[in-house]
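Our working data are protein records whose layout never changes between entries. An example says more than a description, so a record of this kind follows.
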Amino acid sequence: LKLTSDLPYSFSLLTEAGKAKVWFLQGKMEHVERWLKENSYSNTDEIVTSRENDEIVAYRDLGHIILARYKFANGEIDECMYLLEKLTLYQEKLGRQLLLIEVLLLQAQVFEVRGNITGALGAVIRALHLAEKGQCIRVFLNEGRPVAKMIKRLVDEKHDIPRQFALKLLADFTIDDAPESKIPQQPEMLSEREHE
């Protein structure tokens, strides 16, 4: 890591993770792959659940989410889902609501690709309930059209969701013109607070 000495260590770590996420969204997959290798990320990592060195744990978790997106984009669906299942469990234990919402929305897209519509909608429903209190909007908009379509379906089918929040999200998706997800849809191959 190339950390700036006059900035807090935790800030530098999260900035590095943010840079990798931007590369992913820009489709610079070779940069993302190199970053993952340089930081020794793999789907077999033991994801830390301790609250010691909390900022470092958050940095590692952000990296694992990027790794999961990378796996998804490259069609490694089973490995992606394995990572997401671990991340879901550990974000719950650590109480990281925003990261948990991001993981759930990514998980929903993986479920959809697998044809598990019930699982996909269930993940979005849970994400909506978690996000309503803090009005966490950007994390949904970042996922683009696939998530927008699932939210619209939930609204149209009158599922048990925070309806007003869902409608606000759909309006915001419309304003943003609901961009396509930056995760290539299979089989084609290629900030808000971190804590509650």
